Amino acid sequence: GTAGLAGLLDDLAAELGAPLAELPRAEKQRAVRLLEERGAFHYRKSAETVAEALGVTRFTVYNYLNRSRG
After folding, report:
1. Whole domain around residue 46: which residue ranges?
2. Contact by Cβ (8 Å): 22, 14
């Protein structure tokens, strides 16, 4: 697949079988957890990019991250 964050997002959407923005909330939380495990959040402006892909705010992405780290 494509390199970098875009590639991770594409791979995950393919894996989960739906565009990330169309996933139910629980699946979005899972997606954020999987992205974190795969190093997605080491990229510059990653929270912004992930939020855009999921159709949520950056604040929501940080919330999901905090929840998965809790």
Report:
1. 4-69
2. no
